[in-house]
Fold this protein.
Amino acid sequence: MALDAAQRKLCDLIEARRDRLLEDLRTHVALPTGHHNTEAVEKTRSLLTARLAAVGATHSRIAGDPKPKWLYEAGEGGPIPEASICTRTSGRAGAKILIAGHMDTVHDPAGDFKELIVDPDGRRATGPGCVDMKGGLVIAIHALEALEEAGIDTAWTFFLNADEETGSYHSASALREASSRHDLGIALEPALAGGELAIERMGSGQFMIETRGRAAHVGRAFTEGVSAVSALARALLQVAEIADPATGRILSVGPVQGGLATNAVPDRARAWGNARFPTPEVSEEIQQALAALATPNTDCEGGVAAVHISRSFNRPAKPKTPEVERLALAARAAAEDLGQKLPFASTGGVCDGNIMQDAGLPTIDTLGVRGGGLHTPEEWIDLSSLVERCQLLAVLIARLARGKWGGQ
Ligand SMILES: [Zn+2]
């Protein structure tokens, strides 16, 4: 199917926004939203929600939930961020689309990687969060504005959170609730390395193993002690037995803590870890195997150290379902009508698309921009993808919103 007149107009309107797309990206990359930096998150939120309000969306803020205390925190903490839900309704009966984007990045606001720097030839730029996912947020805002400008009536909710990079613990329940009220989901994560659309993702879970022994002086009373570090080491060998990376059953351990001094038998040790799995069944098997490592005694008893297991399998696997495939084919058809290619691929990475789909919403989640070096100080964006992916997003939303979708 070729682009119709309204879709061609939409693309022209977006082409005319080329410079503004880059300027908006520059503005957002300069706001250091990593490490729960409230000031930059709030500034980002107000810029984005004002633009969405201007195209008819109502905005509500949703308080965040607390996060399990045992999760390993690396330079985090601070206030619990709120999510923002911006909804535009339509009188038409088309699909209601949930668009999810995260405002946070992984980058340290106090670090040297601070701004968007465009290469001399203008093809690429580097900057914190430029692809993951400030570029995605910017193209989505422009796509929705261009739809409005082109007079294409659409019903959508733009869900913004600020804790995606740390597991969406604070915003997951709000995202699930929003997912239940929509027909289709789009997340603005960057395209995979070769420009592919992710159509299936592994799931991810966090766990912590804590062992409790009995302290004793190594020189004076060694045999009275029970080493929590030795107990942890034994447990970690058992964790290694659970893993089978060849079949997608992945368990990685680290960081590890235990003991305070070399002359004391350690009475407490802990290790944190991350599991990845391709299906809900494998998730369940891993969780049961981890739970089986726990001892019945909760404290060191009779010379036996106690083993406690905490786990939070917060991002379920996102398998390819017939609905996801249909949605992906609709995205590919839109791409091809624009003269673009949209290959499909699988990934072990997780994102909010895992949560949306687990909540029952067919979701495709790599409709952001193209680039690479995610989560590193070399993060870069292919600048031609700003206009291209904005056009793809806008045409796809236009088609989905009129209720005809499925790769036509
Ligand atoms: Zn991301």
Q: What stands out?
A: The mean pLDDT is 95. The first helix runs from residue 5 to 15.
